[in-house]
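Re-run with default settings, no changes from the original entry. Doing this only to confirm the output is reproducible before filing.
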Amino acid sequence: IAESLKVEQLIHTLQSKQDISILFAEGITNVDNMGALFRNAAAFGIDALVLDYACCDPLYRKAIRVSMGHALSIPWAVTDNWMDDIRKLKTELGIKLIGCETGEVAKPMWEVTPTKKFGLIMGEEKSGLSANTISICDEIAEIPMSVNVPSVNVAVASAVGLYELLCRNSFDNR
């Protein structure tokens, strides 16, 4: 897929699946981070990405390079109506929305109960998730870390979050 889909097309494509995983991005403007989000999505088998209107173009040459070309192969949509489209995806696909954010309302990522249908929402590194986005989430999860380091890069955080939600309990003891 070489261009953005409409949210309705994503819903149509995913609605018959038993397991659904979507990576959402709010306000990601750094092309390196955007490319890394696509690369992480591919690494963990995410079905699609949904970007808000403020995100940078995942088809920017450097984003494609950082993504190792996965920005050309994973379905994605850009939305001009972020809150409405999140609600629509949540309702029509039956996904649990998990916001990745630090703060008092956040619980450790490993305390989030994985579900077969979920969306992980990542925010811009400096400002994080908007209050509106946080309000629509079913759970807010954080990656606990040293008090001297309040957060990690959004690409790293997405990899940790996707691992926790998709892979932590799926590996056998080899």
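DSSP finds six helices and seven strands in the chain. The CA atoms of residues 139 and 153 lie 21 Å apart.
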